[in-house]
Description:
Layout: E1 4-5, H1 16-22, H2 38-58, E2 66-69, H3 72-85, E3 92-96, H4 101-113, E4 117-121, H5 131-137, E5 142-148, H6 160-169, E6 173-177, E7 196-200, E8 211-215, H7 241-279, E9 283-285, E10 296-301, H8 306-315, E11 318-319, H9 335-340, H10 342-347, E12 350-353, H11 360-377
Parallel strand pairs: 1-11, 3-4, 3-5, 5-6, 6-7
Antiparallel strand pairs: 2-8, 7-8, 9-10, 10-12
Pyridoxal-5'-phosphate binds near residues 72, 102 and 180.
Amino acid sequence: MRPIYLDNNATTRPDAAVVETMLPYLTEFFGNASSAHDLGATSRLALKRARESVAALIGAAGGDEIVLMSGGTEADNLALRAGLAASEGRDEMIVSAVEHPAILALAHRLAKTRRLRLHVIPVDAQGRLDLDKLRAALSMRTALVSLMWANNETGVLFPVEAIAQEVKAVGALMHVDAVQAAGRVVIDLAASRIDMLSLSAHKLHGPKGAGALYVRRGLAVEPLVYGGGQERGRRAGTENVAAAVGFGKAAELAASRVRGDGSRMAALRDRLESSLLQGVAGLRALGAEAPRLPNTSALACVGAEADGVAMLLNRAGIAVSTGAACAAGSHRQSHVLAAMSAELAEFGATRFSLSRDTDDEDIDRVLATLPGVFARLRGEARKPAAGLAA
Ligand code: PLP
């Protein structure tokens, strides 16, 4: 049976056009972008175009606002460190309780080593940010606020553009982790006051090991690593030209597809959820009352542990996840679910994350399989589901 891939928040399949665009930069156009000869100039031009395509995807003013780097984790790390370095005299930082570990782990570390006061803003049971607590924490002492646009486990969106207005009103910097949002919802930085924004190519059908930090013009960036003057002195090291070219192509494709793909994925996701919610007692779709990414459905089922659900689905050829990919296999409770409700964290949630490749047949297969999986894990007598070995 054809495998079904519904783990696109972990990573997406590189688009065929992306791979095709990258290939010449792994073969004939191998020049170092810092070299003075023609081969170097070809790579330099390719990087410039990639930055411009990434800038266009998010409505940045130009390619000079894009720092190409190795992915979302590096972009998040640079944003926190650079943001704090640029806000001398201020000693407080604000994040949410459901940020990716790339933010949370570093924020806690920086709080300890630099004696910063760290405010971790809670979310409600729907995964919505507590805006009153955020406002109470904001002050003239705030150096940096770092919030995600979309949560990787639930897809819940934070109103980052509106929050940025309030952050700027106290003179602080605003960083947004848009790794899951880019290519899935429209991002227009021209109309926002966000200072820095993280992106990752492999979440939008680009290659792994490529990403970017958007840095608003005029904001000085203290680099993470020192070396050559690449990326305007903001990210040293010989550039991975092929990966950057792939990222640029993926960004270009995403910009032209984001609206159409979004509504198609939302229709499939909603069909999946409404059919399951009708048919399975005790099932909950997390964040369903909050604004969400169009591609994500996190389902919690009383009595059926998410790890078991994912394992049985895997046996039936359906790839899903039970939380952040980097926590998978470790059987750690999800900090995102724990922040939403202690009871949710107990059983976990199964995350179905769709992509533009997902079709009706995929959803039909999940619908034919999943109720049997839940029943089996809950010890209920039910006909074995299609594709499930006894
Ligand atoms: N931020 C969020 C919200 C993510 O979901 C991820 C990856 O899962 C990252 C950051 C890290 O990105 P990368 O895998 O490119 O390092």
